[in-house]
Amino acid sequence: MLSVEGLSVSAESVRLVREVSFAIAPGERVGLIGESGSGKSLTALALMGLLPEGVTATGTARLREHDLLGVPEGRLKRLRGRDVSMVFQEPMTALNPLMRVGAQVAEVMTLHGEPAARARERAVELLDRVRLPRPGQIARAYPHQLSGGQRQRVMLAIALANEPDLLICDEPTTALDVTVQKQMLELIAEVAPALLFITHDLAVVASICERVLVMYGGRVVETGPIREVFARPRHRYTEGLLAASRLTPRGTRLPTIQGSVPPAGRFPDGCVFRNRCPQAGPACETEPTLTGDGHAFACWHPGA
Amino acid sequence: MPSHAGTPAPDAVPDADSGLAGSPETGPLIEARDVTRVYRRPRTSLTRPGEAVHALNGVSLTVRRGERFGIVGESGSGKSTLLRLLCALDQPTSGVIRFDGQDLAGRSERRLRFLRRSLQIVFQDPMSSLDPRMRVRDLVAEPLVALGEPVGGRVADLLDEVGLPASAADRYPHQFSGGQRQRIAIARALAPRPKVLVADEPVSALDVSVRGQILNLLADLVDELGLTLVFVSHDLSVVRHVCETVAVMNGGEIVETGPVDDVWAAPRHPYTRTLLEAVPTLEDVL
Amino acid sequence: MRLRVNAGLVAGAVLVGLVVLAALVSFVWTPHDPTLVDAAGKLRDPGDGYLLGADKFGRDTLSQLMVGARTTLYVGIVAVGIAALLGTPLGVIAGMTPYGWLSELVMRVNDLVFAFPALLLAVMLGAVYGAGTLTAMIAIGVATVPAFARVARAATLQVMVTDYILAARAAGRRGTAIAFRHVLPNIGSMLIVQASVSFAIAILAEAALSFLGFGTRPPTPSWGRMLQESQELLFSTPRLALWPGLAIALAVLGFNLLGDGLRDHLDPKLRRIRAER
Lengths: 304, 286, 277
Fold this sequence. Notes:
heterotrimer, B: Rossmann fold, 6-stranded mixed sheet, C: 10 helices
């Protein structure tokens, strides 16, 4: 349904995302994992046509029959919020503080041609669908009167308003408490038509996605069904990340990845991970390609 | 030994003035008894005062010398308020907080010097807790300067201790990555050779691949320097890795406290159970 | 990181630089003695050693403009200096103790002075102590104190809620050390911006006062007084009003552009927004 081929994102001369390719089938839930500076959020923004000025995307991305890249803003506007929609990390800044939440949900529908009265009715239905208690009352509330979790549910209602084909979530639960996060994740898994879920948290991805893309330094370094990738990581970065995510009991040393994520544009040539990789050798100066069927990885010295 | 909220265990120090009773190696170092903190919202009416918010409600805890004590809670649980009170950055509305047997209530900053020397804090976000206009050298030396102690070659030693090159001293915080900044914050906290290190969510703002480095570093330093550690986190699994004892907070109260392994394996309070079940784990998928 | 300086900042710096240059050069050289009255050369047309002509007393306009720049800068520096020296500490104290009585007092007095027109204050002071450059400078300076106090207070309030202030307190720093080590360096950029905008206002105020006869006394050249003296000849010899008018306008524009440019340049938040656009 969504197919992305050779997506690159650059700001002036710095390539921030390189040759990213993947596809999402209807109903599929795909996770995009990466640390800060991996290019995961830029990938999502490129698909939404929301890249900041001065940052450009090349390659192709198609959602059903619609091109998403290199299309004039006017056509993207019609797609955005109707065929593909997005939930952001910070629900407080994504909502208009001076507008009742019901009106904000209704607005995305009227923008895409729904009559106003019908949109208001449907807004309450949607608030109910994202399991907000007393949706009629919530619709009349202002964003600051809601809790963080409730606001994020409103964002989800807005994203779902026009029955999009694809939902993109960028760290939607990072700002939430763990108990609220759990409910939110269950809800997203239930209502998403097809999902691209972006996060730095491996455990969160594990609880919601079926397939996963691991990004580092602007590249997809490993991809595959989540069970396989997490049970048997092949790329040394994935391996290190998984090891670092498992918190062992007290008194033991945590496995770590040496060094830190370089700033954008300072990743090494060849394999982007080679300056932090314990296995790196001369071969790694050449860029490895993403190879493998289903479970693919880009590494010269893959783990067993 | 666990002592439950509000009901001090029999072996907890019964007498306020004999704070140093018991072996100096194992006696209580930080004690909070029935601590309450009430904030007032700004008034919205001319006739009525602002609404009172009970951020902390009758909290009691005991941190022993050399202990690694974890405080777990979600936003609004009161853990940040409690932390500020323990560090005397705020005053309780009622209740008593003692450090090394000395009451912290109502002391001027001048009379808190003993606390500032003995207790240092590492904050959550090293980007905002390090003054962007100061060089690393001055940031690390600041606690020493504030206490009127000689700085000498201590900055280089401290940077070395946290795994940073001496050349880092001449640079500004924004020139470092998140993990390196947290190392700077730790070096600064260690400067006056404190007895207690208070860490407020020290790894929450860091990338996963760096989190382990900082947790390992903290564990090493606590061991080498014989520090008492108070570790605040929203994540019980991080606390389990770092601490021996944990206090679980919810709604301004400590709802459960005890050895972390017991609380982890057999939580008794319903809230602790909810919290544990909500934490997503990698094992979910495998 | 590349250094991208905006055009306004450059233009502002060039204009301000010109005023400063003219003032500095006037100390060692002017085409003619700016105060020399020459009945024969009355209303002399431009040319023949008198680049911009001469006024009704035969004084060289260019020389007067150059020495006038000195007066202008002098007034600006002293007035802004008074405002910064009084306003900054008041604002910082008010910002560091937002609920204290001192803070309340400072801000209320501030409101009072703010509501009082600077020109009226200068006229009153002039009436009591005699008109002159010094009275004008003090009046303008005092009237600008609230502007500084407000900016300093707002900036201090922002700094005080940051973690690094909490960290400094936890490190054992006390009030004055926090003010000098953490607050002032972090609000400095906003104060510099305020200073250059206040400078522009001070120039304008001095010109207005001199025009009204409450500012710089003759024979010291001043742009405001040049305007006033040209008033009666506005229709016959408009160039006499044109040159000082232009000088005032360009100097004010220069300081305002400099202030705006510095604001964009020094504020990392604005800089980031610009980079993202």
